[in-house]
Amino acid sequence: MLELGLSSRALLREMVAREGYAFDFSSTGKLLVYQDQAAYALACRQLQMHDATTGGQRILSRRDCLEMEPALQAGGHGIVGGIFMPEEDAGDCLKLCVQMHRQLSAASHNVTFRFNTEVRGFRFSGQQVVGLETDGPSLSADAYVIANGLGAQKLGLAAGFNPMIHPLKGYSLTYELTEKSRAPARSVSDIHRKVVYARLGNRLRVAGMVDIGDRDSGVTARRIDLLKSQVNALLPELAPAAQPKVWAGMRPARPDSTPLIGATPCGNLWINAGHGMLGFTLAAGSARLLADRLTGRPCAVQRNAFALH
Ligand SMILES: Cc1cc2nc3c(=O)[nH]c(=O)nc-3n(C[C@H](O)[C@H](O)[C@H](O)COP(=O)(O)OP(=O)(O)OC[C@H]3O[C@@H](n4cnc5c(N)ncnc54)[C@H](O)[C@@H]3O)c2cc1C
User: Per-residue confidence at 52, pLDDT binned at 50, 70, 90?
Assistant: First the structure.
């Protein structure tokens, strides 16, 4: 997973540099703050053990944390220390997708997008897929990739294998900031409350919660209230421009938290799904690994690490 993450980060940075995508991308690192002494001590020990592979991560005292992120001063009474990860990036995945869509829609790329089209199943000839049944016209291709998040479970079963992908529901709040707002300047993870904060330009996106077994994608008011109270506890002086935008989504997760990337038992059917809570983080590297497998190129990442067994 670390290899896939590193490959993704390098590829995304390369794309940003080459294409100039504007999606509130920042490479300002991530600060993990701890409020529990035992958890902090354990994290420090782990960091010291893996010193060579941690990419410059640093152990910070409580004072260092508050100096690095003054916005934490008002609500950070309980912070005992932190770990700073200087190599972490942040960005708005929707903005990136909108720009990639616009770019790939140019005729020269020969890409067709079919929005609002549901794939309902496959047509087979022996172990080969020869077509897709959709709620519109059927489609056919030389090769097919199952890459539809939670929906990969249904399509996998239809193709005779079990991807074991289940929903982990989560919520986010996006606050517009003003000059008066006191918000972190970089990504912060509140380890005690399991809430993550990402600075996206003049917005602060807060995400948290894992609801297991809830298959209703609607926003649950009780969970949003809890998330808001967690934000108020850490950032009582946030002072956003208005009430946040609320969102709920389903993380397509697998029991061992690793995605499936590679071949399926059907010769021309491939899969790239099950990225759980790391779908954006791992997107570029996963797509490269899949493209390498599909075209028979040498793989940048261990090719069997994400294989279907
Ligand atoms: C609150 C929250 C916070 C998160 N924060 C982060 C984060 O900070 N970093 C990170 O890396 N990840 C994060 N994630 C996880 C990330 O959102 C997922 O891992 C990622 O969206 C998975 O991407 P995907 O393309 O596999 O699936 P999805 O994003 O679910 O997309 C699948 C798409 O396929 C469509 N579809 C499904 N079935 C069919 C069908 N039969 N036919 C046609 N279309 C179909 C769906 O409508 C959907 O549009 C977060 C998730 C949540 C819920």
Answer: low
**Average pLDDT, integer, range 11-23:** 96
User: Taking a C-beta distance cutoff of 8 angstroms, is the pair 250, 126 a contact?
Assistant: no
Give pairs for 47-53: CB < 8 Å, separation 24+.
47/83, 53/2
What are the b/e assignments for 174-197, b being 16+ CB within 10 Å?
A: bbebeeebbbbebbbbbbbbebbb
- Tell me, in angstroms, the distance from the centre of ligand 1 to residue 275's CA: 8
Query: pTM of the entire structure?
Result: 0.95
Mean pLDDT of the chain: 95
* Nearest residue (CA) to ligand 1, atom 35: 148
> What's the Cα-to-Cα distance from 114 to each of 98, 105, 156, rounded to whole Å?
14, 11, 21
- Which of 251, 260, 269, 271 gets mutated to test ligand 1 (max ligand atoms within 8 A of its CB)? 251
Instruction: Give the residue carrying structure tokens 């075209």.
Output: 295
**Per-residue confidence (pLDDT) for residue 300, from 0 to 100:** 83
pLDDT tens for each residue of 55-100 = 789 999 999 999 999 999 999 999 999 999 999 999 999 999 999 9
Ligand 1 centroid to Cα of residue 272, in Å, is 12
Amino acid identity for residue 68 in this structure: M
131 CB-near residues (< 8 Å, 6+ apart): 122, 123, 138, 139, 140
Closest atom of ligand 1 relative to the 150 alpha carbon: 30
Q: Domains, the chain, ranges and CATH? A: 30-87+167-253 (3.30.9.10)
